Amino acid sequence: MPEATLDKARIDGMEIAYRDEGEGEPVLLLHGWPTSSFLWRHVIPTLAEENRVIAPDLPGFGASSKPLDRRYDFELFESVLDGLMAELAIEETGLAVHDLGGPIGVHWAIGRPGEVTKLALLNTLLYPEFDPSVAEFVIALSTPERRDELTSPEGLGEVLSLGLADDSHVTEQALAGIRAPFRDEDSRLALAKAGIQLPPEGFAEIAAGLPTLDIPVCAIYGEEDRILPDVAATMSRVDDDVPDGARITGLPGCGHFLQEEAPGEVGELLAQFFS
Q: What is the pLDDT of residues 20-58, one digit of tens each?
């Protein structure tokens, strides 16, 4: 199956790009920082064999609008997800989330009982008790000089490398995909804003809401995550918090961007879960 192509929708005054592949029960894939739907490109074909797969570029990322006059909070992202679901006439969907897409997607799901039918968590953060690495990330993106370094082409390359357990996966295609949307100063500033403007109280709402999320939940994570080193503890806590527990699969030899390192295995695990 060829790589999914990007469609566009006008939502909440912004242009939102998304990939829409396959037929069947819908599954929504949410990326994190600093990626886009591009991260899912090798996972989508397997999942789309039996499902309709929708993978948007969230505002501030990829080929979507990157406004500088908007706050990248839960309300903004959720208005886009609501608008996209309405645009595509989808009333219920499965949901798979990664990195920053985790709090965005889970907060959205908790606030819309019955609209999300299954939840898959990939290396992500959900709780208000942040690992020190998260605090360091927020400080870096709040400091102009460090922000400019981190969002530069070189900095984005370093993020990709840090997020992989095996440097052989730092390919020219992967580097181009992570760098291409951020060619100018404004787009890089939007990327920084999008990474740090989710308010902490939203994470507390997620922690309080997980026990109400009475749907099947699975967790698939790279065990060698240097970006979110507490990911195993996060997944274990989710297992304790959701009503029916979570089906947890750790992938040895994979880091944060497991879609780059084990796309076939990730695709098969998601396909089994959402079938």
A: 999 999 999 999 999 999 999 999 999 999 999 999 999
Cα–Cα distance for residue pair 201/203, rounded to 1 Å: 5
CA atoms of 19 and 88, how far apart (whole Å): 12
pLDDT tens profile 128-154: 999 999 999 999 999 999 999 999 999
Determine how β-strand 25-30 pairs with β-strand 51-56: parallel
Going by the DSSP 8-state scheme, the letter that residue 2 receives in this structure is P
Sheet with 6-11, side-by-side order of all strands: 6-11, 14-21, 51-56, 25-30, 93-99, 116-124, 217-222, 246-251
* 127, 137, 228, 217: CA torsion to nearest 10: 40
At residue 32, the 3 state secondary structure works out as: coil
Measured CA to CA in angstroms, residue 33 lies from 39, 44, 116, 137, 159 at distances of 10, 19, 23, 11, 10
Residue 63 CA to its chain's centroid (Å) = 15
For the chain, list the domains and their CATH numbers.
Answer: 6-274 (3.40.50.1820)
pTM passes above 0.90: yes
Residue 253's φ and ψ, nearest 5 degrees, are 80, 5
H/E stretch holding 95 = strand 93-99
CB 21 within 8 A of CB 44: yes
